[in-house]
Design brief:
Layout (H helix, E strand, L loop, with lengths): L2 H10 L1 H21 L4 E11 L4 H22 L2 H11 L10 E5 L5 E8 L2 H21 L5 E7 L12 H26 L6 H8 L15 H9 L15
Antiparallel strand pairs: 1-3, 1-4, 2-3
Helix pairs in contact: 2-6, 4-5
Length: 242
């Protein structure tokens, strides 16, 4: 099956492809709308190291990025979640805490994010996380590292998930590809010749003639329309123009 045959098969099955793809897109939109909306609030913090001499300053430049990555991983740990709950136990439950951390490029900055179905709770947890991380660092005996809040979290106004537009677009692309593949498979498994060229290739003989597609009409109704019910020709009377 060559490329032209594929194009012809897709064109013949275009209504099937469009209908099935529309069903897939509608299903993805409906399921996405039924999902619970989640909101994410983020706090930007900086890992600051206390420096006592010039030698420590050079070392701090080398280790600052690695420390930010380390503390980003620690921010998502159970130990930090426990400390957050201890400071906010009157306002949240342990199930409300979902915290993640990520380093900003290769800098000494890290972003601590909290996700929750309630925007206000997401903001509350995200702003409590830096203090919990600072307390954890101090309990480990690391006195030279400190967490400085650069940009506190605000109340998110739009959900971070589900992403309706992305899901619908992915459903459209996948549905189009999948239904197109089904249409081609139907053409391959079917017994339709499709064109005179395909017939020549199958039988190995040239095609001498092709019958045009005939449309059946009601000959009696057509005859009455032109000649009238009594068989007399119907003359067209046009109004005279003054």
């Amino acid at each position: 099956m060559g490329v032209p045959d594929v194009y012809r098969a897709l064109w013949r099955r275009k209504f099937f492809i469009v209908f099935m793809t529309a069903l897939v897109v509608a299903g993805a939109w409906y399921l996405t709308k039924r999902e619970q909306k989640l909101y994410t609030a983020s706090t930007l913090v900086r890992v600051q190291q206390r420096i006592d001499n010039a030698g420590e300053a050079f070392l701090a430049l080398q280790t600052g990025g690695r420390l930010a990555q380390t503390y980003a991983n620690i921010a998502a740990s159970h130990a930090i979640a426990t400390r957050i709950y201890s400071s906010l136990r009157d306002q949240i439950t342990p199930a409300d805490i979902s915290v993640s951390g990520s380093q900003v490029q290769d800098l000494e900055l890290l972003r601590i994010s909290a996700t929750n179905p309630v925007p206000a709770k997401a903001e509350l947890i995200a702003n409590a996380a830096p203090k919990a991380l600072e307390e954890f660092i101090q309990t480990t005996g690391t006195k030279s590292d400190h967490i400085i809040v650069v940009d506190p979290a605000g109340v998110p106004s739009t959900p971070s998930s589900p992403n309706v537009r992305l899901n619908v677009m992915m459903a459209f692309l996948l549905g189009l590809a999948f239904n197109g593949a089904i249409a081609i498979l139907i053409e391959i498994l079917g017994d339709r010749v499709g064109s005179a060229e395909n017939l020549e290739r199958i039988v190995g003989k040239p095609v001498l003639a092709v019958f045009p597609e005939l449309a059946l009409t009601n000959h009696r109704a057509d005859h009455e329309e032109r000649h009238g019910a009594d068989g007399e020709p119907v003359s067209e009377v046009r109004p005279a123009h003054g």
